[in-house]
Every structure is written in structure tokens, then in C-alpha cells.
Amino acid sequence: MFAVKKRFSGLLLMLAIIMILAACSSGTGSNATEQASATGTETTTGSTETNTDTSSVSDNSNATRIYKSLSGDVEIPAEPKRIVTDMYVSDLLALGVKPVGAVQYYLENPFYADQVAGIESIGDRAAVSMEKVVALNPDLIITYSDQASEIESYQKIAPTVVIPYGTFTNVHDEIRGFGELMNKSEAAEAWLKTYDERIEAARAKVKTVIKPEETFSILEVSDKSYYGYGDNFGRGGQAVYRALQLAPLEITKKELMGDTQWKEISREVVGDYAGDHIFLTVGENNKNYQGDSIWQSLPAVKNNQVYELLEDRYWYFDPIAIQGQAEEFADMIVERAEQNRK
């Protein structure tokens, strides 16, 4: 009887040992799984910091970082894959990033028309389709909108970075700003190096035919008046005054190169805003100005130094457009100078 009890006790002891070993093995597997999961969602704290995961786990698709935007800190994907933007298509393309969706108007920009294949339209500037944005399943939205309701709608769909219209006043700041946002500063500097080389070539071309004291104006014609523009509101302003460094009139510097970038000008005083050369934005139905006696009396008109610009092409003022416009303007100026010498 004692032998039976002893044998039974031994069996119980062996069973207990097996159960303990099994429990230890299970616990080790669980801890390893939890550790791998944690490293996949690591968050950094600086807008230019990259994911600092040093584990052997390769899947960090859920990693995030904090971007310090003008409207506050935003937690965004460390490596966003599906970006929707309204107007900032050019900035992303310059960095080698193709968004999945954008506003139709900016997809029609002629200066990067060869790069937008595959980008879906999310509607026009006045009526973005939130249904379309949702359908694109973005992991990051970049907007210039100042409408609280629209921003709130975006934020319900995906992390949203707000970059207000006019935040950047030159190409270098803009591309570097997006390089920081996208964690692609090296790509930003590489693009800017090429930009600087192309712009310097355009400046050199212009200097062969333009004297430093010659002035340039940017005007737009409407049915009853004109509009004048500065150096950061489209119509070629950044290309003319910043990229090519052509001289504005003093009145332009005073009235149109600060917080105010455009103003309506009556036909009676248009001469005050007309430089030696005029870049004139013209719509398809605004040709009546050519018969205006005041317009015909301007020195730029008499000297054949007015360059007509199609509005749909020169309203854009993103980095890629500015680069292209500067080169086109340089060619226009040189060609006109050669014509006038004949």
C-alpha cells in the first residue's frame, strides 16, 4: 500500500513539473509578441526626427511622429503612403512623392502635367468631395483651408496638417518646409540645387538684354479696369521679382509687396503702375484694352515691351510653376529684345 502511495506521489510531482514548464514556455512567447507589437508603433517627438526603432522587426507601418505645424502639434505617420492634398501637389512631386488625391484645379497645372497620372480628383477648390477623400483612404491630409468646418471634416478622416495660403514667401522656404514635413530634407536640397542652377541660367540670359535700371510691372486687364500684383500672388510675381530679380517700380514695392499683394487700378492711373516692361495677364474675353488711348500712350506699349500672359497658365505660383515661368519669361524678354533690334 505504501508503495502504491509513493508511486502515485511521484506521478503527481512529475505532472506538476510539466505544467510549470509549459506555463513558462507560454509566458516567454507572449512577452516576445507584445514587445514586437510595441516597437511597431513607436512615436518620436520632433518634426524632423525619424523612427528610432532598433529592433529586428521590419514592419513599422504604424510608426508615427509629431509634426510641429503652425496650428499645433500633429501626430502623423512616420512614412505616409496615401496622401491627399488640395493645392500642394507641386511640393510633393518635387520631393518625389505622388499624392493619391488632389483638387482638380491643381491637377491641371501645365507645369507638371506630365507627373499627375494616377492622382485622383477630390473636386474643385470651392467644393471638395469629402466622400471622395474618404474613399481614397488617406493616411495624411495636407490642406491650405482656413475653414474650420472643412478642417474638422478632414481631421475625422485622417491626420491633417494645415499650411495656410501664403505661409511661404519663396521657393526655398517652401521646399525646405515640405522637406521637413515629409522627412525628406535631402530630397528637398537636391531639388533646390537643380532649381538654383536653372534660375541662375535664366537670370544670366536676361542680363544680356536688360539694363539694371529697367523696371517691370505685373498687371491684369479686366472689363473696366486693371489689377496690379506683387511678388507673392501668382501672375508670375515670384518668377519676375524673386527668381529673375527684375526691378519693380517704387510704387509697386510700397503698395504691393507687403501684406497687400494686389489692388484694382483704374484706367486713368494705370500709367503710375506701368514699368518699362509689363507682364499683362489677359483672359480670352478681355482684349478691348488694346483700343484704349491711355493704354496706347504707355511707354511699354510704344516700345513693344508688353508680354501677354494667358491667365490659366500664369495664375499658378507653386515651386515647379515658378521655375518654369522664370525660364519662359527669360525667353520672352530675350526674344522681344531681338525683335525690337531689327
Shape estimate = elongated
> What can be said about the biggest beta sheet?
5 strands, mixed
Tell me the radius of gyration. 30 Å
Helix content: 40-55%
Structural class by helix and strand composition: alpha/beta
Instruction: Give the number of helices.
Output: 13
Q: Any low-confidence stretches, pLDDT <50, length ≥5?
A: 1-58
- Count of strand segments: 14
**Mean pLDDT, nearest integer?**
85
- Percentage beta strand: 15-25%
> How would you write the strand order of the largest sheet?
12-11-10-13-14
Q: What's the SSE pattern? A: HEEEHEHEEEHEHEHHEEHHEEHHEHH
Kindly, what is the distance between the CA atoms of the first and last residues, rounded to a whole number of angstroms? Answer: 129 Å
Report on this model:
With about 350 residues, the protein is α/β, with parallel strands linked by helices. Helices cover about 45% and strands about 15% of the residues. The protein has helices at about 1-40, 90-95, 105, 130-135, 150-155, 170-180, 185-205, 235-245, 250-255, 295, 300, 310-315, 320-340; strands at about 65-70, 70-75, 85, 100, 120, 125, 125-130, 140-145, 160, 215-220, 225-230, 260-265, 275-280, 305-310. A 5-stranded mixed sheet has the order 12-11-10-13-14, with helices on both faces. It has a 3-stranded parallel sheet with strand order 3-8-9, covered by helices on one side. Helix 3 links the parallel strand 4 (about 100) and strand 5. Helix 6 (about 170-180) packs antiparallel against helix 7 and helix 7 packs parallel to helix 13. The protein is elongated and about 65 Å long. The model is unreliable at about 1-60 (pLDDT under 50).
